[in-house]
Amino acid sequence: MEAQKEAQRIMTLSVWKMYNSRLQRGGLRLHRSLQLSLVMRSAREVYLSAKLEEDEEGRLGPQPGLGEEGAGQTPLPPAACPGPLAPEERAAPADRGNAPAAGDPEPMETQDSGGDLPPATPAPGAGRRPARGGSLPPPGKGSRKRRSSSLDKPGAAEAGLVPTKKARLEAEEEEGERQPQGQDGPFPSLAKVLQTRFSGMLRGGPAKGPEPTPGCRPGDGVLSILVRAVVAF
Amino acid sequence: MAGVAGGGGGGGGNDFQWCFSQVKGAIDEDVAEADIISTVEFNYSGDLLATGDKGGRVVIFQREQENKSRPHSRGEYNVYSTFQSHEPEFDYLKSLEIEEKINKIRWLPQQNAAHFLLSTNDKTIKLWKISERDKRAEGYNLKDEDGRLRDPFRITSLRVPILKPMDLMVEASPRRIFANAHTYHINSISVNSDHETYLSADDLRINLWHLEITDRSFNIVDIKPANMEELTEVITAAEFHPHHCNVFVYSSSKGTIRLCDMRSSALCDRHSKFFEEPEDPSSRSFFSEIISSISDVKFSHSGRYMMTRDYLSVKVWDLNMENRPVETYQVHEYLRSKLCSLYENDCIFDKFECCWNGSDR
After folding, report:
1. How far is CA B233 from the centre of its chain?
2. Rounded to 10 degrees, what is the CA torsion of A226, A227, A228, A230?
3. Whole-model pTM above 0.90?
């Protein structure tokens, strides 16, 4: 639990730093963004494994509908059982409140997580919400509490999401379609903002200014990791 | 604020005691952002010390001739020249402000009375000439002493202007501007031993320049992946070998160093040597990757060794041995347990430099 909390804290901190680094003079620093995303990834892995252990302990029986994850992922029971754990894990600040709406079947999430997270991160931004700096939640807020399946991104991402992402790069409209059950709440928007902002990076250009719309920033590759991580929230 | 440390040999045996011999700048807490020093570099003889700050200025200190009555004390450094090297710029295409902070200064070997140095910010490198003027001509025929033109019809005799001494004036003038070659932020420059070329490195690319040619450069290393999502490491520092003008090294954020030979191919993406120390699995933490990033690499004067600096340690590598360093020094190992706090206050991202003393000890 401690490890999980610590990991959660570090993830929030990282996202906050990433967001702030956009605002600094001189533009986004590629190296710094990369380092932040690496920390985020480590924290997320720890968080995931800690959550996994905990869920296994807490679980009474395997949930159905699991295992839609992408190749090579440990089937994530947590993915399917936000139920029992959800209440206690939902951090007070309600942002994530929507996740529970994920009461909307886990299976669906899991499934979507394949398609949804990475696109979600990018996606959230795309169709529904114009990326807006203002909508970003203050750091430290927030339940990063999200379906762990989403946290599985790294593998799943490679498997199913990369093409998705590329598609996203080429055509933002596609994101809109892929739009999952609207993640609302600040974190999705955070994800969206970061996503759209960095989408330019993926196109390979360096950064643009502080507008909410796609900026090309040198922090590219990290985007994918960052995106996935952020989506996890 | 600058601290100039002088070595005091104290104690017996190999014990060195280091103490500040001079401190330049403001000691109080209230320092303007623009005055924060971002880089320092001695010239080859050590007589000149150049500092660059966040405001784009370069201040050069010169060591005074040693006082005959106190032969053992090192000469003091006093301000020799100050000039504005870089100004903030705005990249309209990318809506990005380009900081004027000086990232690196490198001196060129001295070839005549003037001194030359390269200074760089995130995007542009400039070659500056610093020269002294201690004489001026007086007695022009067509000008008065105060500069006004004389009426040619009133000149009845000719005279030869003579040189008269004047107060020493140090002038800095930009001789070359090397711009528009880097997409990412420049982190290193290094003058080659041939004294004709130099390299500049940003996060993903290294370019080779000729000191006389400003409108083009050659790209010699490019580690940008085709798909930026696959980016895993960036270049953090690069340096030419002190004697072999075809050899250079560059360090990465993953804690590796690659040595490249420009004779092997035009694009040196394939290294000739690869230096990496296997990671100690017992010391893994959230921040392992950040602290293993190498922030500086320097060849020894002999060219046989190189020194690298990561967050917590300094390592000395023998160029002939790629699988581990020959020496490792923990600089502030006590910080290892505080990495989380350092991450919170951003200190974990600080970049340290390292350098050899004159005799490579």
Report:
1. 23
2. 80
3. no
- B119: its two tokens: 């200074």
Provide the β-strand partners of residue B170: B132
Give per-residue pLDDT as tens, B350-359. Answer: 888 888 887 7
* DSSP calls for A43-107: HHHHHHHHHHHHHHHH-SSPPTT---S-TTPPP-HHHH-HHHHHHHHS-SSGGGGHHHHTTS-HH
Nearest CA to B98 among A15, A218, A194? A218
Task: Find the chain B residues whose C-beta atoms sit closer than 8 A to any C-beta of A.
Answer: 94-99, 101, 122, 183-185, 187, 203-204, 225, 227-234, 236, 253, 285-290, 293, 340, 343-344, 346, 349
Q: What is the pLDDT of residues B33-58, one digit of tens each?
A: 888 999 999 999 989 999 999 999 99
Cβ pair A70, A159 in contact under 8 A = yes
CA distance B213 to B199: 13
State the complex-level ipTM.
0.83
Backbone angles phi, psi at B119, to 5 degrees: -130, 145
Inter-chain CB proximity B184 and A30 less than 8 Å: yes
